[in-house]
Structures are given as structure tokens and as C-alpha cells.
Amino acid sequence: MKQLRFGLFENAQANDSGTATWRHKDNKRDGFDRLDYWREIARTCEEGGLDFLFLADAWGWSEVNGQRPEICSRESLDLPRLDPFIVAAAIMAQTTRLGLVVTGSTLLEQPYAFARRMASLDHLSQGRIGWNVVTTGTAETAARAFGIPMVAHDARYDMADDFMDLVYKLFEGAWEPDALERDKQGNFADPGKVHRISHKGPHFACDGYGNSSYSPQGTPVLFQAGTSPRGRAFGGRHGECIFLGGGSPEKLAEQVRAIRQEAVKSGRDAASIKLMSAFSCVVGATTEEAHRKYNEVLEAQNPDVAVASYAMFTGLDLSSYDVDTPMSSLHTELSQTQIARFGDMTVGQVLNEWHAHGVRPKAFLGTAEVIADTICELAESADLDGFLLTPVTQPGSTRDFVEQVLPILRARGVAREGHPEPTLRQRLVGTATPVLRDDHPGSSYRAGLGT
Ligand SMILES: Cc1cc2nc3c(=O)[nH]c(=O)nc-3n(C[C@H](O)[C@H](O)[C@H](O)COP(=O)(O)O)c2cc1C
């Protein structure tokens, strides 16, 4: 069996994943805006041997019929948040080996400035940075906040392709990897290795010099998570690690196959793209204890959250439909995955499911041994390369996983001890060097290759 990689899903806000668990007595996530919270999470991840910490992010908010429901503030459902780049910089200073993956939107970021922020994190962390490329599912409200026009679902991916072409030029082509000599008797940088770049795409343009030199990994490790047909095509072209939202082994296996096929269509090696499924777990000394702990989490939540929360991901007000309406009859220009994942279910069934776990997959409940078995079976049957732990409460979920489940996976040879590779790409993608593989489209922009 493959050796798996493990990351933690985090979010710099009081709740995540469309649920409102902040009221639970053991959940410390309501302290997300304090450095102490992140110190504790970072230490738990690094000492526990997780490969990376992922910071999800969104810009929009929830709206039902043009209004932000009051419950959003009462339960801190969507806002307030902190900037994941700043949180990542703070965590980086507390850690030496942990990988850090930050979310950045190709709809809302300005590519020239964004490339410098990414390169800065990669320099300062010595190559521990990844970028979760998102087109922003909460596009409608976010676009209004930024004063830009709304862009439809597939067109956002076209825009993202253009964004990627420009940032590849900045990451890979503006400065050669050995441009900085820092020779006090000679050059700081060799002028022959600093290149003017030019980009005139359908959405973005740039003419001039990159603001940051080549960072340890050049391009940050590229993560992506869209599972719509257009999202898969984008992920197959650009993604090095793809997050999946979880689900049955059959559904995951189908998604893994489709994304690997998309990678091949883009001229890439199918095995070079790493598929990681989100999962949640509640560990108990017995199965009964795990169920009891999980019920406590459900009972701590306000059931009225579900309608407002679902609207944030899709713009749809489920309370306005008959409960027997099939989900397959609905359409959104926001996150299409949040309709498709419910298959033949009805609106009423989805409202119940959403209260239990929001966008998170259903939690595995049981002893550490049973959870380790489930992870192994899922990885084997769906050909997965890793998992992303989506916590139910923090830091308890992370601590339970690293202290109880991970050691079992290590003993079975499925998880690793420590972080032998110096950079995140080497650790996750398995490259011999820190930079993009030669079959990745971004590598063709590398300076000196004449493109
Ligand atoms: C594990 C995981 C993490 C995600 N993190 C984010 C995020 O931080 N920000 C965001 O806007 N979307 C996030 N998404 C959503 C996807 O990026 C994508 O927008 C969504 O799946 C809809 O894309 P689609 O319509 O192409 O399927 C995440 C999805 C998954 C499965």
C-alpha cells in the first residue's frame, strides 16, 4: 500500500465548513484571532508529524433573498475572518518543518502583487508553501464587495487559466534560480539572469520585472479542489495536489480516475498528481463513546444555521423550496459541487445532512483502530495519495488524530515518521528537486528555456 500524506484543514474564523460548532465547550476556534490559538495548533501539527496545515479562505458572505441573515453574525457563520497569508506567516515563525498551504482567489487577487506575496512566504519558509487555487465559490457577494462584475462559473476558470499563465511567468521566468550572487565584491544579482516579462491575456496584463527573486520552490505547490467538469479540467492541467470533498469509495474512485485522466490530457504523468480526500473523525475509547462525543457536537449547534450556511456556498435559499424537491433540479453559478454531491436526495434531506456536517464529509466515528482501518480501505479502493483532516472541534480533533490514529498508521507503514524532505513539493509530490516537474505546464515558463 502507498505511503499516505496527511494535512489539517484550518480556517481563520470561528467556524468552518458550513457548520457552527464554536459553542461546543471544548472548541477553542472562537479564539482564531489570537496568536495563542495558532501557536497551539502549529505545535500540535508539527510535533504530531502532519505534513502540512491548510488554511482555507473565502471572501463573500451568506445572503438569503438579498439580505445577510442575522444568524450569520450571531453564530459567526461567515464573518469575521483573518487573512490566511498573515496567519501563515505567524505560524511559519513558530515552526521549522510543517508545510503551509494558503488559499488565494484568481477572481479577486491582483496577480502581480499576489506573486510577490507567495514568493515572500516561500522564501521565508525555505520552501514550505503551497497555494490552494480557488475561483471563489462565494463569487456573487465577493464581487460586489470588490466592486467588480460577477463572473459565471466556467468563465471564472477561464480567467484562472489566464491568471496562472501570468504568475508562472513571474514565478518561473522573471528571475533565474541562481540570479542572486550576493557578492560584496561583485554583483548582488547578475543582470543577465533578471528578465523582463510580458503578458497580454484576455483578463490580465503585465509588462516589466518580477518584484521577487526565484524562491526555493519557484512556483508554490499547487493545490486545487474543483470537481465540476470545468474544475477537473483546470485541476488536471495545473494542480499538483487535489483536494476531494470525501464521500463513498466508489464516488471518490470515480473522481480520482477522472482527474488523473485530465492530467494525462494535459501531457502530465497521471501518478504525479496527488489526490487527497477530506475526512472527519471522532475518536472514542469505544464506538459508543465516539457516538456520544459526536452527539455533543451536534447538540451544541443551532439548527437554524443550515439555510443561511447553504446559501453562502450556492446562493440558493433551500427554505423557499418544497422539502420534496429533488436536488438535481437546482442550479447555481456558485459552487456546483454543493448540488452534485447530493445526487438524488431531496431538499429536506439535504437540510438535515447540512446541519450534521455542512460541506464536511460525514465523520468516521469509532475507536482509533477502526478509523485507521477506514482510512486504509478508502485509500486502497479509491487510489488516494493522502487525507485532509477536517476537525470537528479544535484542537481536540487534531490532537486525537495525531496521538491516537497516526501512530497506528505508522506502525502499519502507511504513514511516515518525521519530515525528511526539505521542501513541501518534495514531500508531497515526490520530486527529486524543489521545483515543478518538467511535465507540468508551469515549468515551460522557466527562464532560459526560451518560451
Ligand atoms: C477540501 C476542500 C477545501 C476547499 N477550500 C476552499 C477554500 O478555501 N476556498 C474556496 O473558495 N473554495 C474552497 N473549496 C471549494 C473548491 O475550491 C471549489 O470552489 C468548489 O469545489 C466548487 O468548484 P466546482 O464548482 O468547480 O466544483 C474547497 C473544497 C474542498 C473539497
TrEMBL record:
GO terms for molecular function: monooxygenase activity; oxidoreductase activity, acting on paired donors, with incorporation or reduction of molecular oxygen. Keywords: Flavoprotein, FMN, Monooxygenase, Oxidoreductase. Residues 432-451 are annotated as: Disordered. Residues 21-320 form the Luciferase-like domain. The keyword RNA-binding does not apply. FMN binds at residues 57, 103, 153, 157, 228. Gene3D superfamilies: Luciferase-like domain. The keyword Ribonucleoprotein does not apply. It comes from the Bacteria. InterPro entries: Diverse_substr_monoxygenases, Luciferase-like_dom, Luciferase-like_sf, NTA_MOA. NCBIfam families: FMN_nitrolo (TIGR03860). Belongs to the NtaA/SnaA/DszA monooxygenase family. This is N5,N10-methylene tetrahydromethanopterin reductase.
